[in-house]
Amino acid sequence: MMYDVVIIGGGPCGLSAGLALKEKGISYVIIEKEAIVNSIVNCPTDIRFYSTSDRLEIGDIPFLSQEVRPTRTELLKYYRLVTERQDININCFQKVESITKDNNSFTINATDRKGTIISYQAKKIIIATGIYDHPKKMGVEGEGLPKVMHYYKEGHYYYGQQVTVVGGKNSAIEAAIDLYRNGAQVTLVHRGESVYQGIKPSLLLDIRNFIEKEKIKFYPNSSVAKIDELTISLHTPEGNITIPNDYVFSLIGYQPDLNMLQSLGIQMDPSSFVPAFNSDTYETNVPNVYLAGVVTGGVTNRVFIEDGRFHGLKIAEDIERRLNA
């Protein structure tokens, strides 16, 4: 079936782009490789978001949460309700395998959970894949072991276990605090000198207290050297050390789907992975290919749902103008 637009990615920014296109009568379909808003599905179970509920709304549809800052459960419910009530055209659990371009259209081939190939054709593409599905890797021996994870859900399972958290941003600090509160023996490893800068104010008092009282063992200016079934080895300023370890959470950040962007010919900054796009229309250097949401920020952590939810409006305006030209 031919659509005016195929949107790849069913997160908040992809849903918002779909709503903007629908309002203008532009035919579209969203392809999502897992569940809707899957990045939020992968957030810690008990997380309360730092953003207020009004800054997470899409399509001018009010979002009322019990407190000013919503929980994961409330946010998931909101996006489900928006998808259902606005009859957003989305196909979940379909993974894009290839995109090819003819003279005037794109062919997008996806596979569902049964391995069936589904083909779509579109005049234009919006890539709204975010970055959360592609964790950065440490590049060390043992990183592929089952005990090494890149997402944190909840801490009860790790009671009494030796757990190492790698990273120094909000996700790593939240995980370290929650693990400690659930009875894990927590080690925090960060390549920087401190974890006190640039994190949510709500985390600062707890993490400072836990580190200073050595409830959480902190290794600053350090990195992982090797992981095996029973231990983890670290490069530290005092030399290499090896400590007992049962589980590792590598929470050092996420990056765009580089393979997809590169396969389309989208140019990127080699260090930040920020793609090339027009800041007014969000069209990339590849004609008729647009970007929406967090993917526009590469690995800079400067674009969030709060910003990306508005990208679809500008994209829809540009597509409407060009379709009617």
Structure description:
The protein is of the alpha/beta class and 325 residues long. The chain has 2 domains: 2-134 and 254-323, 3-Layer(bba) Sandwich (FAD/NAD(P)-binding domain), CATH 3.50.50; 148-250, 3-Layer(bba) Sandwich (FAD/NAD(P)-binding domain). 24% of the residues lie in helices and 23% in strands. The protein is built from 8 helices and 15 strands. The strands form 3 sheets. Strands 1, 2, 3, 4, 5, 6 and 15 form a 7-stranded mixed sheet that branches. Helix 1 runs parallel beside helix 8 (311-323) and helix 4 (170-181) packs across helix 5. The longest helix is centred in the first third of the chain and has 14 residues, at 72-85. The model has no long low-confidence stretch (mean pLDDT 96).
Please, what is the oligomeric state? single chain
Looking at CATH, which topology of the largest domain would you report?
FAD/NAD(P)-binding domain
- Give the radius of gyration: 21 Å
Secondary-structure-based class equals alpha/beta
N-to-C span: 23 Å
Sheet bearing the most strands, described?
7 strands, mixed
